[in-house]
Amino acid sequence: MTAFLAKRLAGGLVTLLVASVVVFAVLEILPGDPAQLMLGMNATDATLNALREQMGLNDPLLVRYFSWVGGLLIGDFGRSFTYSSPVIELIGERAVVSLPLAIMALLLSTAIAIPVGLFAAARRGKAADTITMGTAQIGVAIPNFWFALILIYVFAVWLRLVPAGGFPGWGNGIWPGIKSLIMPAVALALPQAAILARITRSALLEVLGEDYIRTARAKGMPRRAVLWRHALRNAMIPVLTILGLQFAFLLAGTIIIENVFYLPGLGRLVFQAITQRDLIVVEGVVMLLVASVVLVNIVVDVFYAVVDPRLRANA
């Protein structure tokens, strides 16, 4: 198991290194002068040069890259020139919104998708299977921001059960904070649940054709026990893969939903930093999200080994 983890960690570090080069290079080749965009067209040359010097824009490219990576390694993400605050503080303030939102959406997606996938697989070829998977296909096709707008109209405007947007802060209580995240979580979870349900059904159908499943049925094991105790566990590898990808997407891909619901999360922070050309914020947040994706993938790989010990032996 130690060698297995070491290989995964080494692969994750290589991924982070490549991602840092790509993120830095992409932002460097973007057109426009960050200092000019931040100070406006009427800024004097002296002011522009002073800001460029302060931001390190006059240093050679490699010097800027290694300085930035060195700061990341010690937890120094730099200082935002738009917000006049350390980037790590901005990330901490926004992560307390985005992380609970992603976790809520993932839990809701999983709670919906796995029972639906089991239900459809157990009724393969029947009307219930066709209707269930047809509904899931609609969920895959419809974008989450459309769900978000419908939810706002129904539950916030019409029924007035939840706020239409904004975040009161956890200091005002746990329930008000959770209440403000319910609709965004549902809007994020429903399309992901549709995808996961289809993957779960497909994986289960493949497992249900195996000899050991037929043997369990021939011995008189109840159908529910066959599905939950044998089929589902052996179908979890592709399901875990999608769960890992979904959590990464939910954490890193909430820009639209956070803007629809006016949530002060990481997605909205990245959007605002891009529009204001605050490159140091964009670089820091993007690298943090990349690291989160790498970490989630490593955790998923460990779960692979827990679910199927043969993977540890072959690693």
Automatic annotation (TrEMBL):
<dbReference type="InterPro" id="IPR045621">
    <property type="entry name" value="BPD_transp_1_N"/>
</dbReference>
<feature type="transmembrane region" description="Helical">
    <location>
        <begin position="285"/>
        <end position="307"/>
    </location>
</feature>
<keyword id="KW-0812">Transmembrane</keyword>
<feature type="domain" description="ABC transmembrane type-1">
    <location>
        <begin position="95"/>
        <end position="300"/>
    </location>
</feature>
<dbReference type="Pfam" id="PF00528">
    <property type="entry name" value="BPD_transp_1"/>
</dbReference>
<keyword id="KW-0472">Membrane</keyword>
<dbReference type="InterPro" id="IPR000515">
    <property type="entry name" value="MetI-like"/>
</dbReference>
<dbReference type="GO" id="GO:0005886">
    <property type="term" value="C:plasma membrane"/>
</dbReference>
<feature type="transmembrane region" description="Helical">
    <location>
        <begin position="231"/>
        <end position="257"/>
    </location>
</feature>
<feature type="transmembrane region" description="Helical">
    <location>
        <begin position="181"/>
        <end position="199"/>
    </location>
</feature>
<feature type="transmembrane region" description="Helical">
    <location>
        <begin position="99"/>
        <end position="121"/>
    </location>
</feature>
<keyword id="KW-1133">Transmembrane helix</keyword>
<dbReference type="GO" id="GO:0071916">
    <property type="term" value="F:dipeptide transmembrane transporter activity"/>
</dbReference>
<comment type="similarity">
    <text>Belongs to the binding-protein-dependent transport system permease family.</text>
</comment>
<feature type="transmembrane region" description="Helical">
    <location>
        <begin position="142"/>
        <end position="161"/>
    </location>
</feature>
<protein>
    <submittedName>
        <fullName>Peptide ABC transporter</fullName>
    </submittedName>
</protein>
<dbReference type="Pfam" id="PF19300">
    <property type="entry name" value="BPD_transp_1_N"/>
</dbReference>
<keyword id="KW-0813">Transport</keyword>
<dbReference type="InterPro" id="IPR035906">
    <property type="entry name" value="MetI-like_sf"/>
</dbReference>
<keyword id="KW-1003">Cell membrane</keyword>
